[in-house]
Each structure stands twice: as C-alpha cells, then as structure tokens.
Amino acid sequence: MERPMIGVLPLYDKNKESYWMLPGYMKGIEDAGGIPIMLPLTSDIEIITKIANRFDGFLFTGGHDVNPKIYGENVEDICGEMCNERDDMETTLFKHVVDLDKPAFGICRGIQLFNALLGGTLYQDIPTQLRSEVEHNQAPPFTKPVHNVYIEKGNPLYHIIQTESLKVNSYHHQGIKKLSEQLLSIAEAEDGLIEAVIMPQKKFILAVQWHPEFNYKLDDYNFRLFKEFVTSCEK
Fold first, then answer.
1. Among the four residues 37, 72, 141, 225, which has the most C-beta atoms within 10 Å?
2. What DSSP line would sit under 121-157, residue for residue?
3. pLDDT at 1 over 80
4. Could you confirm whether 2 is annotated as catalytic?
5. Res. 235 pLDDT band, cuts 50 70 90
6. Which residues partner with 105 through β-bridges?
7. Interior CA angle at 27 toward 21 and 32, to 5°?
8. Based on the number of CB atoms within 10 Å of its own CB, is 54 exposed (0-12), middle (13-18) or buried (19 or more)?
9. Residue 79 annotated in active site
C-alpha cells in the first residue's frame, strides 16, 4: 500500500523568524509508515484549501498558547506566548479537515486547539486556575513519564493501546477547562484534567495532551498512537 502523505504543522521561533521542527514528530510518522512533510505558515485561503485536499492527514503539533479570543475570553497576564500566524492557519485548515473528514492527530497545543475551535474553553494557566498537585509542566528530560492517565476500558483509546492506565510525560501549562460538545473525553489525569479526546463520527480526529513524539521509541503505547494515525491516513 502506498505510504500516506501527512502534513505537519510547523513550530515557529519569533526571535529567529524561522520555522522549525522537533524530529520526533517527523520520525514518529515515518517509523509508523507515513511520509511527513512540514507545512508552511500561510493565511492564503487558496493555498490552505489545496493543502487540505492534497494531503492524506495532518499532525497538529505542540507549541504556542492558543489565543483566548478563539474561545471568547480576554488574554490574561497568566497566558503565555501566542502565535497569531499559527492560530490563523490552523483555524482555517482544521475546518477543512473536519469538512473533508481527513485524519488529524493533535499533540499538546493540538488538543487545546481542537477543543477551542469546536466551542470549548481552556485554562489559561493550570497552576493559577486549577491548582493541581499533578506535575503537568515537567523539567527535562521530556522522555521521562511523570503522571498517570486513566482510560475507560472499551473506549476508542483503550482499543488502540489496550491498557486502562498509562504513565505519560507532561509539558504544558494550559489545558481543557470546558470540553467541546463535539468532542469526547477518552483519558483523564489523576486530577481530572482531560488528557485525550476524539471527535466522534469522524474517521480519525484524536488528540492527546502529553508528548508521544519524545518517547514513542521507548514506549510502545505511544508508538501505537502514531501507527493508528498513519493507518487511518492510508487511502
């Protein structure tokens, strides 16, 4: 079977005015059988439309905070660095992905973006607004798992990884506050924070709060996420 072509949303360094990429995003797709291609950041509707139609699936990467204006809130001082270029492109691209029923895998910022674009809200800063004792924003090395997530037996994530609990790495200060009515929670942390979602009725729209790109080579559960995503992209 022909390897699927998967568009990977770029990371952006404002100071260097450059796109960049963590190798785990690309290698995770490649090792799972796909061909990863880093996309440009653009607001050109024609280009985004062609990208949406041409690629077999999309990986929405981690990175900047989602602008609270997307989910109807003012930007508080506790919010981190944002990137309007990413917000603009990813908003348009995600709408196309949903309409075309193309597979999409969201990681960290990705789960937050999906939720915000579909009508949910976010904690702008977990330490301030949730006051959890769970270590959500760990120090390096990011391959080290630091807290558990719990998966109800029989749900779609359990079907993929075949376990009811998973110890994950965690590198974020924002997270889902109010879940979109269009999403289903499929994993939670010990403090109740949502750690994974799917968009039911779609071919494959799944997102996780942790970072499988850092440790998929060390943890087969995380590799299965990449594998299931890539398999869903095959024509």
1. 225
2. -EES-HHHHT--SS--BPPSPTTS--EEEE--TTSHH
3. no
4. no
5. confident
6. 59, 206
7. 140
8. exposed
9. no
* 85-90: long-range pairs with CB below 8 Å, 24+: 85/12, 85/41, 85/43, 86/9, 86/12, 86/41, 88/43, 89/9, 89/41, 89/42, 89/43, 89/48, 90/9, 90/60
Across-strand partners of 13?
18
Return the SS3 of 171: strand
Cα separation, 105 vs 185, whole angstroms: 15
Q: Which entry of 108, 188, 195, 228 is annotated as an active-site residue? A: 108
**Residue 210 per-residue DSSP state:** S
pLDDT digits (tens, 9 = 90+) for 152-187: 898 999 999 999 999 999 999 999 999 999 999 999
| Residue in 90, 188, 195, 213 annotated catalytic | 213
Known active-site residue 233:
no
